[in-house]
Structure formats: structure tokens, C-alpha cells
Design brief:
The complex is a heterodimer of chains A (about 325) and B (about 400). Chain A has about 325 residues and is of the alpha/beta class. Chain A contains twelve helices and eight strands. Classes of the chains: A alpha/beta (about 325), B alpha/beta (about 400). At the A-B interface, helix 3, helix 4, helix 5, helix 7 and helix 8 of A face helix 8, helix 11, helix 13, helix 15 and helix 16 of B.
Amino acid sequence: MAETLRSILARRLVIVTGKGGTGKTSVVAALALAAARSGLRVLVAEVGRDEHVPRLIAPGTKPVGYAGRALRPGLTVMRIDPFEALAEYLGLQLGVRAVVDLVFRNRAFRQLMEASPGWRELITLGKIWHLEQMTTPDGDPLHQLLVVDAPATGHGLTFLDVPRVAGSAVRAGPLRKHAGWVEAMLGDPERTLLLPVALAEELPARETAELALRVRRDLGVPVDRVVVNCLVGAPFPPGLDDLDERVARLPAAATFPGLPPPGVLAACGAHLRARHELGRHWAAQIARMTGLPLVPLPYLANGIRGPDDLAQIATPLLAAPEAVAA
Amino acid sequence: MKGIDGPSALVRGRRIVVCVGAGGVGKTTLAAALALGAARAGRRAIVLTIDPARRLADALGVGALGNQPREIPREILTRLGVPSGGSLSALMLDMKRTFDDLVERFAESAEARDRILQNRIYQNVSDALAGSAEYSAMEKVFELAESGDFDRLIVDTPPSQHALDFLEAPQRLLEFLDSSIVQLLLHPAFAAGRFGFRLFQRPARRVLQVIERVSGVSFLEDVSEFLMAFEGMSEGFRQRARRVNALLLGRETGFVLAAGPASESVAHAEAFLARLQTSRVPLAGVVLNRARVWPGEGPAPAAVPDVGKEAEAVRALAAALAPNAEGDGETAARAAIHAASEYASLVRRDEEATRVLRGASRALGCFWRRVPELPRDIHDLDGLARVADALFAEANAGDADD
């Protein structure tokens, strides 16, 4: 892994995905914030029923909705609601938006659409493609970086596979053409990057490895690194790696001013060391199973509450990924 | 509260235990530990999981799990402290297979069955019927409950942003089958006349035609074919969904909410509990999983070392760690103190999660348990046994006011 990877920010479209609880949304927000600070025009698109990114970037802000809103200079956040996107698309095709709106207000019609497969993913990806194509009056990309908070792993693959399925199932018509455009965008390593976010624990590690392999093998979506979130750092400086054991050997009855007993001091260190070693073990497993370099992010004890915490993970997120010796 | 004061009473008193919660909080492990507790109490227990936790399956000695129950070998159960009357099985839910089985059961004829199984819409059915993952899990629970092979069923639900999706799935399916548009597609003339659909029909048809035009597929044709094929079995299906619903919300079932100590996870659990107050869900308890506990007496101190004692603490610890004044005494003392200080702040955060969730569960009158974080992942029998021990302890260790 000696070759230098292109920066995440050199892509136009970054699709962030990961199992629930891995901190995928924090990665999306940190990436978007850092990109906007570096001067890029950034759009974050959330895909899902709830908005999570706005409150990380601007705590206390109101929902941004489908129309989206700039939360900071150069940083807009929107949520792609499939019904809104479909209404927009059909309005364009039909030429009369009012008719579409009338029908979409009908509960029964919505139930029918709720029950129909595939279109949500396709229309969402279509909207992303459309956003990616938008230009300024000068012909530059309107959104220089588009960050998508994609559904958790299980659905992550279905989501990306839909254009291919649609392309093969649909015989003719505009949809086939449009699905082809979306597929071309997703497979273009110059434009697109799929960024999996994992935790260095057994289940997320295995799931992420499977995701990365299937994305590369079956879907042809570019993936060149894995983000490993919440890594607990080494608790002791080099040379003192087994300090907790040394502390544990002190006489149990010894007392030190202002400190808990030696057994408690040792247990604190031992716990942190065990989590650190476990993290290293599973990070190495992720590297071995995927063959990809890793982007390690530190564990923040108080979680991610707002822009200051995001800034702490943005620097390592944008640093060159590490090849971990397995 | 209905005799459920802890997990022991829960697995003794309820036939079905459903574990709900956000992804990543350790639901699968908790479900397995609850099932182990039931088996230890002499019950024939089964855990249904949706997580391909292969190492858990390996550890249980059942190899790969499938859509049919696999029994954990007797010698392993004995090691885990399960008496001879108790048993423990595991099953990994295959949603597609479960739905196919359902079609097999209710289709009017072999021809109708094939028509459904080959329908393009049916083939996407896991996406098609919103919440069908949840529904098929419930369907499997129902099947196993009917079979009489098990007297305790512990269900690990699909990770979902909205834990109540699981509950609402059967109802949503019923609503969909009963919905006016389905009736319209099934009986166009009848429905149009009776329900006054004329107003709706014309613009709807136009939009559907546009969908067909751009998609190049006969969308309406596929949908009606699917519904037509389904209609023959819809009565059986409908009755079954009603019975699944009744079983879920009935007196035989108890729900356990699993949460993690991270602030996002606690917020999620609080939101879930707030929604529960307005629902009929039989909530039995709340489990805070993987909470760090202070290794000394009482709660974690507010600061390590005590404020104003740092210089003194470092000096004394350095002298003890390096009695012959070797060079690293002070570095080592500072590092050991720093680690304890960091760990104390983590424990304080988890204690805050404890306070919030304990308060919320008391307000709801359900039991509350805390499972301490183990320094290792749970993927072997000893780890699972330790989680079960913590879960089934009479009170929470180190929890003074419980």
C-alpha cells in the first residue's frame, strides 16, 4: 500500500455507509464541515426517515427538509424524501406539477407506492445524480462535494444495486436510460467513493469486510479505504505498556494521597488496555479481510455533540490512510 | 408490576420475550443471554436472531444457523448450568424463506402459488411490504409458538431506527390489504361505485400512466397481478396477521428495551420509552448494556486524584512504583493516574446513562438492569454465561439505591 491515495475531498460524490451504531452520521458531518472550511461548496444529502446531520452541525436548528438549507457558509444539508423526489421527477415528465401534487396527497395512492418495490432507491439515486450534474452559471459544478449519509449496511447494498437491477429488468424507455446514467456515476472512480465506517469489534468488522468485498466484486462502486471509528488509544506511554500489572503488584493496603487504592488504579488501566488491544486486533482483521488501508478515528469519551467534537475527528479523517500490518 | 421484577420473573412468566433497541447495542447477545437464563430455569428455550453472529453460533456448538431451529448440544448446556429439563436452541431468521413458506401455506392452488412466487413485485417483497423484515420475524415467532416445541421464545429484532416498526408491521400489512387502492385494483367496478373513487381515479391514472411511460414496465399490470394472486390467500393471511398481532400484544409476551451508554443511544431509548407510554406494548424491562462500572467502592470519583492533591499523589505513587529511584517512577505514576482519571470520566458518563434510564424505567413501572462492560467481546460461552449472570443477578452490582 505504498501508493498515495487520492484525498476524499478530490471526489465529487462520497457515499458514507455503515452498520447502526458505528458513527456513520458523525463521519458525514465531520467530512462536510471540514470540506466547507477548506472552501468547497458542500451539500449533505441524508437518506432515511429522520434528520441527524443538522443537529450535529448546528445544534438546535430546525429540520432542513427536502428543500435543504445552508447551515454554514458553503454547507447545505437536505433530506431526500423519496415521495418528494418522485413528485419532482414526475412533475418534470408530465409538465404539470399540480396534478402530481393532487394525486400525491391521496392516502391510498401513497399506500400503493409504499408497497411498490425499488422505486425509492432508484429515485433517491436519481436525485443524487441530478444534484451531481447541477452547475453554476459559469458551468462549474454547483456542489463541489456531495456527501450522502446512506442507509445502514443491510440496506446499503440493495440501495446501490437498484440501478443495475432496474437497468436489466426494464426493457426500454427513459427509465432505462436514466438508470444507466446513475450506474455510470456510481462506478466512476474519478467522481465517486464509497466510504464504509466500521467499529473495531467483531460484528461490525465482519459486516464491513463483507460489504467492502461485495461492493467491489458485485457492484463495481469504488471503495479505497475503511474508516475505523472509536478506537481507544493506548493508555500508557511506550515502554510502560504493562503498567497496570506493575500497579497491581503494589501492596493492596498501600494508600496514596488523593488516589484510590492500587487495585482500583490497576483495574482502570487494565480496562483501557484491554479495549485498546481489542480495537487493534479487530482493526488489523478489517485490514486483512478487506485488503484496504484504514482511516483510524479516536474514541471521544463524551460522544459527538457538535462542531467542536466534529473538528477533532475531521483531521484524522482526512489524513492519508494507514496500512495496518496484519 | 404484574410480577415482573426482573429477568428471572420475565422468563418464568412470559412465553415470548422480544428484545428491541437501536443497532449496535448488543441486542443479539442480550437475547442469547435471556434464552440461556430461561434454559437454566428448566425451560425449553429458543433464541431467534437476525444477526449472522457466526462466532456466537460457533461458540454454542451449532455451526451455521439456518431458518430451522438448531439445538445446542447437551454437553455444552451442562457446562452452562442448564438442568436436564431445560434446553436451548437457536435459529437465524431467513426472511425470504419465511415469506415463501407463508405463500406455500395459504395459496389456493399450486398455480396461484407459482404465480405469486414468480411475480416481479413479490420477488422484491422484502422491500415491498414496508416492515416485512419485522413481519416475517413475527411470523416465525408465531409458527414456533404454535408448534409447541418450545415454551420460551426470545426474539432478537431487526435493527431499526424506529424500534416500534416491529410492532406495527402486522397492523400495517393489514391496513395495506384493506386499503381502498388495493380494493380498487382488485374490484375496480365495485370499489369505484361504492367508495366514490371517481374523483381520485382520473388524475391517479394519469400519474400511473406517466410512471408506466417512463419506467417502460407495466407497473399497474404487475401490481394488479400481484394483488390478484394474493387475494385468494389474503383472507388466511389477514387472519394470521391478526393473530400475530394479538400474540404480540397479549399477556404471554414481554418486551425488553436494550440500550447502550453512549448519549445517542440513551436519547434513542428515551424517545422509544416516551412512545411506549402511548402504546399497548407490554414493556417488561430496560437493560443498559455494556455500562462501565467503577472498580472501587461507590460511584466514580469526581476527579482522580482529588483536587489539589496531584503533586503529592504523583510523588507518593512514583516512590512506590520505583522504590530505588529508577528513572521512570514519575512518568509511570503520571501515566497510571492519567489512565484512572480517564476511566473515571468514562464511568461517570455511563453512570449518567444509568440515572436517566433507571428513572425512565421506574416511571414506567418496569424492571431495570445494568450489564457491565466486559473487557472482551462476547463470542464464547464463558462470555455469554457472564452476561447471563449479570442479567439474572437479583440486583444491579454496585447500584446502591436498587
